[in-house]
Amino acid sequence: MLKIKKKYVIDEKKRPFAVQVDIETFERIERLIEDYALGQFINENNSSDDMTLEEGKAYYQKSEDGGLRMEDCCRWMKWQSLIKP
């Protein structure tokens, strides 16, 4: 489990009302939450939405800005995880 160095911020009646963490710890927590959320999204992804490599390339080529949406990236990542080099 992640060790979190924290400082409690208290009011004039000595009641804690906030927690302070250093930037490095905050960024680690942020990455953990983002990774967890992405993992959940990938696990919940409908397998009927999966793309083949050729479908992915075609979709990318026809997208207006040349980029992919988050859900398309997740499909790609899920597909890549199924391929063994």
Gyration radius, rounded: 20 Å
| Helical coverage, percent range | 40-55%
Instruction: Give the number of helices.
Output: 3
Low-confidence stretches: none
Overall geometry: rod-shaped
Write down the secondary-structure element order.
EEHHH
Strand order, main sheet: write it out.
1-2
Largest sheet: 2 strands, antiparallel
Terminal CA distance: 32 Å
- Work out the count of structural domains: 2
Class per helix and strand makeup: mainly alpha
- How many strand elements? 2
What is the average of the pLDDT values? Answer: 77
Beta-strand percentage? 5-15%
Structure, described:
This protein has 85 residues and is mostly helical. The chain folds into 2 domains: 44 residues, no CATH class; 39 residues, no CATH class. The chain is 53% helix and 11% strand. The protein contains 3 helices and 2 strands; from the N terminus they run ββααα. β1 and β2 form a beta hairpin. The radius of gyration is 20 Å and the shape is rod-shaped. The mean pLDDT is 77.
In a few lines, what is going on in this structure?
With 85 residues, this protein is mostly helical. The protein has helices at residues 23-44, 53-62, 70-82, and strands at residues 7-10, 16-20.
Which structural traits does this protein have?
3 helices, 85 residues, two-stranded antiparallel sheet, mainly alpha
